[in-house]
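Morning. Coffee machine broken again, so started the prediction first thing and wrote up yesterday's gels while waiting. Chain of 424 residues, entered below exactly as on the submission form.
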Amino acid sequence: MQRRFTLQALTAAVALAAAGLPAFAAEGTIKVGILHSLSGTMAISETVLKDTALMAIEEINAKGGVLGKKLEPVVVDPASNWPLFAEKTKQLLTQDKVAVIFGCWTSVSRKSVLPVVEELNGLLFYPVQYEGEELSKNVFYTGAAPNQQAIPAVEYLMSKDGGGAKRFVLLGTDYVYPRTTNKILRAFLKSKGIADADIMEEYTPFGHSDYQTIIAKVKKFSSEGKKTAVISTINGDSNVPFYKELGNAGLKAKDVPVVAFSVGEEELRGVDTKPLVGHLAAWNYFMSVKNPTNSEFTKKWGAYAKTKSIAGHKDKPLTNDPMEATYIGVHMWAQAVEKAKSTDTDKVIAAMAGQTFKAPSGFTATMDMKNHHLHKPVFIGEVKSDGQFNVVWKTPGPVKAKPWSPFIDGNDKKKDEPDGKSKT
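Came back before lunch.
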């Protein structure tokens, strides 16, 4: 009887293969965790990353899965609650037995997850730009380090093409990413001869909605003689009232340009972007970049969003940088598992070194051989009236990440590869 069942299964698998359909292993699936806020202040940014991961998983399954097994997503909602990120991570690794986790947006959520994945030897793929100053063997960082976003953006603002800014407003949400990034930027600006008196620094809590007072202070600061630019590390749904107030106050890009590090196509969806034309964002990908790989990516996403009736995207599908980083991460992990012939964390980590993927940015994304970061291009885009971005500057090719910023004292002595527990 058992022999007959095996023969039937083999016959069915051959038939499926002949029909061009995936022939999954009879036993089990490979569970993968998706850890994104689907409620709370960060849902505006994170929900779509959950959907992007699900799309990538569906694509991989349609081509036969991984190691002949279907990927089974386990989706949890840590609800923009930072301690809950740690609890959900423990649940995914110990109860659900996932082989990998794709998730987090804010650095405070990643910092919450970090000790859990290290203790349990799990694997996290983190898809958002961040402040650097961290390296863990259990994390792959597919978003930008500061030298792949923040530093090039400020260099652009100081250049003739960027308006020759001499004064800077560092405006962020009050947590580790904005504060550390701005510590790096202060040191960088000081190295360029910018005095402390020409730097204004302000922070607001998550979910902050009243930007009238801060915008008034920015207007006053910018009226004191020198060309002023705003560097925004505001995260989550606070970006909507911030940009609305920017428009209400009549702060035009030609007078006081704002460059954002956490605002893309998705965050501008609920904003009248006509008054914001010319303001800037720095990323490693924009939906508007023109190349065949991106055309295919945006087309796939549009079809997927329509089929799944994804809120907001069914009629107006948008892609953005963290979506691209999520998509790259899921596919690279699958490639590494195939190379390792195992989902064992340590074997997959070894197989991730040097992995490549043809990215929607138009460049080949490469995982560094040592430092768990992608080599990525940098783009600076201007907001257009339709909420898209016109690329005004880009690097000639991918930039290697520097997790340890040279503008932080003592970083020259830190090793550019993870060994054991995270170094922060």
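The longest helix spans residues 43-62. Going to sketch it on the whiteboard this afternoon.
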